[in-house]
Amino acid sequence: MSLTNADVRKVARLARLAMSEAEIAAASMQLSGIFDLIAEMQAVDTKGIAPMPHAQDLSQRLRDDKVTETDQRELFQSLAPQYRGSPQVEAGLYLVPQVIE
Amino acid sequence: MLNSSLLQMGAALRAKTISSAELTQLYIDRIAKLNPALNAYITLNPEISLAQARAADVLLSAGKAQPLTGIPMAQKDIFCARGWRTTCGSKMLENFIAPYDAHVIEQFNKAGAVNLGKTNMDEFAMGSSNETSHFGTVKNPWDTARVPGGSSGGTAAAVAARLCAAATGTDTGGSIRQPAALCGISGLKPTYGVVSRYGMIAFASSLDQAGPMARSAEDLALMMNVMAGFDERDSTSLQRDKEDYARDLNKPLNGLRIGLPKEFFAEGMGSDVSQAIESAIAEYKKLGATLVDISLPNSKLSVPVYYVLAPAEASSNLSRFDGVRYGYRAPEYTDLADMYEKSRAQGFGAEVKRRIMIGTYVLSHGYYDAYYLQAQKIRRLIAQDFTEAYKQCDVIMGPTAPSTAFKFGEKGDDPVQMYLSDIYTIAVNLAGLPGMSIPCGFGATVDGNPGMPVGLQIIGNYFGEARMLNVAHQYQLATDWHSRAPQGLQ
Q1: What is the pLDDT of residues B277-305, one digit of tens each?
Q2: Catalytic: B175?
Q3: Nearest to B259, CA basis, from B388, B137, B76, B397
Q4: C-alpha dist (Å) from residue B332 to A15, A100, B350, B485
Q5: Fewer CB near the last or first residue (10 Å), C or N of chain B?
């Protein structure tokens, strides 16, 4: 199967990955090779086979609906990424570029 | 002391032949001397290591030592350890100091073990050669022109070079077993759900499993006793009674039925690897085992199935790295979308981006049924093959990897060639079974250089770890491949 540059551009956008045109061209070649490998799956008859999402066919355990975490806001905020030399937090909130005009 | 087993080290510490602080200093000095050439560690913190050692010495003096108290170990850099830089081999987390301990780290801390440092790995555990690490490749201690395997390549090299007594790894498609094979050490990937994934940076959550890597099966059993166990913070952690993984080590192997899957011996394996595996199986016959021919007809589909499921889960897990709350943020951007896109493009390496794109594609509108669902259905067929096989045998054996350690750059720019390195290991993860690799000989000599280690893969039934460790330990009592060390590193 071959992926076009337009396919790759769309996927990169969905995955929030900035890519140059040269990177897109290289990726479409490599991804096409990987999808050739993956295509071996398509010939298998899987009618009536239930999908297997978990190794032991167990459903995930639910915990009681109660607070178990302690408040560590300051510690977590100290890990915020730096931008122009300062961590991007203010008054307990994370700073991002303006979204709504 | 560097070649002692964990049991021997523990005994020496309790007998005060050596203190934990002295033993830890011995390793710190050795790492300072040898690590620059091997690059097995990403982060060292001798002050923390020595403080842990002194605390262990207090426990030892008070007679409160557990089996691993005071023993210097290392942790794969995928485990969050409070106060330690935890990078997962990525620029994305280059400056990330973990604010909490992973369950595995907590367990080793409670056991009084010393953490010497965080070992190098393929970025986000995606790779089979350690060539995708942002912090440079790890060199194979047996031949520094060759890869150590991956993704737990730093751990494998550190254990082989005696830069720690033992260490942890994680295995999503072979990342414990393949580097263990390539570096001539022992490694165990437990049954899915036996070791908690809490605090272990997620790659593919339905496949990821942590396990021990060490110089012998006996050492692995001691580590499993510390690592395994229920943890309510991992929703896939299994509620089971605590077990002693060393309980069966000394049982004889009379009557053991070893299944040999014809698909593993059909083609693709190097003739030198094949020879070493055949000799190991002959040794098992001498130890009283019988051989059973079995078939895993769908195992050939495990690589394509894995390269749908693992990237799909990775694309979802790695969406958390957005440059907002922690991790890398691009230095320049115009708006929010541009900040996400640039931060991720600059923070992730090529292989990680490739897998995120595969995953995003197979999960995107219109392709889900053809890829993700089809892969999950074939996953069941692969698991059923094993269930059938275990009606006739107790363990399954075969090669861990198709070849011995290859040279840096040898797989070129074609990712598919690298993906095929895990052809014998991936089916085990898809089925959720336990698998291990133990050294069983050396490959062909090349250009006058000695051969590289070969790993024998032992696959067990669900929760068969104690039996597998018994099977491996009996072989290690009868042979000495596991005690060989690279030239100059004994």
Answers
A1: 999 999 999 999 999 999 999 999 999 99
A2: yes
A3: B397
A4: 19, 20, 21, 49
A5: C
pTM of structure = 0.97
Q: Which of residues 18-77 of B touch A (CB under 8 A)?
A: none
Identify all chain B residues contacting A76, using CB atoms and an 8 Å cutoff. Answer: 99, 325-326
Is A10 among the domain residues?
A: yes
CA pair distance B409, B464, nearest whole angstrom: 37
A22 burial via Cβ count (<10 Å: 0-12, 13-18, 19+): exposed
Distance from CA of B334 to the nearest CA of A (A): 8
Q: What is the reported pLDDT for B488?
A: 86
- Tally the domains of chain A: 1
Q: Are B114 and B72 in contact (CB under 8 A)?
A: yes
Architecture of domain B6-256: Alpha-Beta Complex (3.90)
Task: Residue A26: give the domain boundaries.
Answer: 5-43
- With beta carbons under 8 A apart, name residues in chain A contacting B324: 80-81, 88, 94, 96
Q: CA B201, CA B397: separation in Å to the nearest integer? A: 30
In this complex, is the C-beta atom of B484 within 8 Å of any C-beta atom belonging to chain A?
no
Q: Which helix (H) or strand (E) holds B58?
A: helix B46-61
Write down the catalytic residue from B20, B133, B152, B175.
B175
Work out the widest C-alpha separation in chain B, in whole angstroms: 70
What's the ipTM?
Answer: 0.94
| Whether B316 contacts chain A with CB within 8 A | no
